[in-house]
Amino acid sequence: MAARAVLFALDAQDAERILACPGDDEVIELVEEVEGRWDMDHLFELDKSWDALHRCFTDGDLAFENGEYPLSHVILGGIPLHEGDDYIVCYVAPDQVREVAAALEPLDNQWLSSRFATLTFDAYQGTGDAEDIAYTQAFLPGLKIFYRTAAQNGRAAIFTVDQ
Question: Number of structural domains, the chain?
Fold first, then answer.
């Protein structure tokens, strides 16, 4: 699970549409439509940092529904919308986006480094060395801005990654 990930902040119309999708094909079609717009004000590219970030925000495992809310919803939390193995799409509602943004706000690189050092990551594909930690830390400020902006605009969020 080390593919490149993107978070998108959805307006109310797209949020309603994605929740109404009857299956994986329709979810992916809508995600591709949202990706096609590439609205830089409402997306954040996580590259491969999402794996380590999710583990740090939760209990060290790369799994759905692990860790404590609201940090559990930053990456793989919320409602999984795709059931196939080739893609992950998770939906976080606007009220949850606000709570995630508030939980992220006090976190800094020191917190992330300390958290990284305390966890033993099963099946982690990264190295866990200083360079890996620095790479992961580089995404924290943008992640905080993404959620803060989405919260201020009353938007839902989707986490997307292809496998």
Answer: 1
Evaluate whether residue 12 is within a structural domain. yes
- pLDDT tens-digit series, residues 70-93: 999 999 999 999 988 889 999 999
Count other C-beta atoms under 10 Å from residue 142's C-beta: 14
CB of 94 closer than 8 Å to CB of 32: no
Pairing mode of beta strands 79-80, 87-92 = antiparallel
Q: Is residue 163 part of a domain?
A: no
The per-residue pLDDT for 2 is 47
In a domain, 60, yes or no: yes
CATH at residue 43 = 3.40.1760.10
Instruction: Walk across the sheet containing 156-162 and list its strands.
Output: 43-47, 5-10, 156-162, 87-92, 79-80
- 135-152, pLDDT tens digit by residue? 999 999 999 999 999 999
